[in-house]
Design a protein that fits this description.
207 residues, mainly beta, 52% strand, 13 strands, Acetoacetate decarboxylase-like
């Protein structure tokens, strides 16, 4: 479906296993991850959008990533967890968007993927508060994080701007309180907290 007109907008939530603040962000992926292998999970909740004639409003999905060494070196393992409430057409559309084959922000990341590990289905639940979030996808994934408040207003986070992140160039900073991922050959358990997190709105389109 090359050339399909599409656009999705919504909310993005991420934790990764790097210590706060993740060095991948402020070195344009050139830094060694703080635990040598970077594990990240980007949860995306589509509030509004279409892929051609397919309505994607309300669909949630999680992009799971594992990379040994600096992210810029490539050879990423990537898998998708898509909400079990999505129908087959919606799953196919999300898969095409996340592959980068139909343009959009993930097109640049596609060249760094060495292993696409497939798609899993699970019931995805997302709870977003003003300064915190939590995501759960059945037994496959669970995380939570708290935003880093600025010195002037505890209800407004500190932001990092002009990043190369595919979700948004401007990201709110957050600290993970827990993260668990068991899918695509990736096993990650962190209940100690202190790892990196981000959240932001996203607006993805074919062009």
């Amino acid at each position: 479906m090359a050339g399909t007109n599409w656009r999705i907008t919504g909310d993005y939530f991420e934790t990764c296993n790097c210590d706060y603040l993740c060095p991948c962000i402020y070195t344009n992926m050139q830094a060694q991850p703080t635990h040598d292998t970077c594990i990240a999970a980007l949860a995306m909740r589509v509030n509004d959008g279409k892929f051609g004639d397919i309505d994607l409003g309300g669909v949630a999905f999680i992009i799971a990533i594992s990379v040994k060494g600096p992210m810029a070196n490539g050879n990423w393992t990537v898998g998708l967890i898509i909400d079990e409430k999505a129908n087959d057409a919606q799953v196919d559309a999300v898969g095409q968007i996340c592959s980068g084959d139909v343009g959009g922000p993930m097109e640049l990341a596609a060249a760094l993927v060495g292993n696409f590990a497939g798609i899993e289905r699970a019931n995805i639940e997302i709870d977003k508060q003003a300064m915190s979030f939590s995501v759960k996808a059945g037994a496959l994934f669970e995380n939570a994080a708290v935003g880093t408040a600025n010195a002037h207003d505890p209800n407004v986070p500190i932001f990092i701007d002009n990043t190369a992140h595919p979700a948004n160039k401007r990201l709110a900073l957050a600290t993970g309180t827990k993260s668990h991922l068991h899918a695509f050959g990736i096993d990650w358990d962190d209940d100690a907290g202190g790892h990196n997190g981000h959240f932001a709105p996203f607006d993805w389109a074919a062009a």
